[in-house]
Design a protein that fits this description.
Layout (H helix, E strand, L loop, with lengths): L6 H16 L13 E4 L14 E4 L8 E5 L2 E6 L3 H17 L9
Antiparallel strand pairs: 1-2, 3-4
Helix pairs in contact: 1-2
């Protein structure tokens, strides 16, 4: 790759940002907290078409807040409620802006 930035470097930076901003999943004050991973795979007896195959769940059974990554772009954080989604967006945007990574949640 020489001295030019590669896609790997860009992707690695976004993964570091995501790991840092998500914090400790067992902290009850963390918006990205989760307790267990739920699998809903084809072939299981309780498979449901309307559910995702893999999801993080909180202790009360609700979906956990998370963010979705596409190659070198972290797309909009998600949450079980509008307030959690907004808080997750803020938690992701602040360290991104500090590092000079563009954040466009409207995407």
């Amino acid at each position: 790759m020489g001295l030019r930035p590669s896609p790997y470097v860009s992707f690695r930076g976004t993964l570091w940002l995501k790991e840092e901003s998500h914090g400790d999943p067992s902290d009850p004050e963390n918006v990205f907290r989760w307790e267990r991973v739920e699998l809903n795979l084809p072939g299981q007896e309780d498979y449901a078409l309307h559910k995702s195959w893999v999801s993080k769940r909180r202790s009360d059974g609700s979906l956990a807040a998370d963010s979705i990554s596409f190659v070198d772009d972290i797309r909009g954080p998600t949450g079980p409620t509008e307030a959690d989604a907004r808080q997750a967006s803020q938690v992701m945007a602040k360290p991104a802006a500090w590092r000079g990574i563009q954040d466009a949640t409207r995407k």
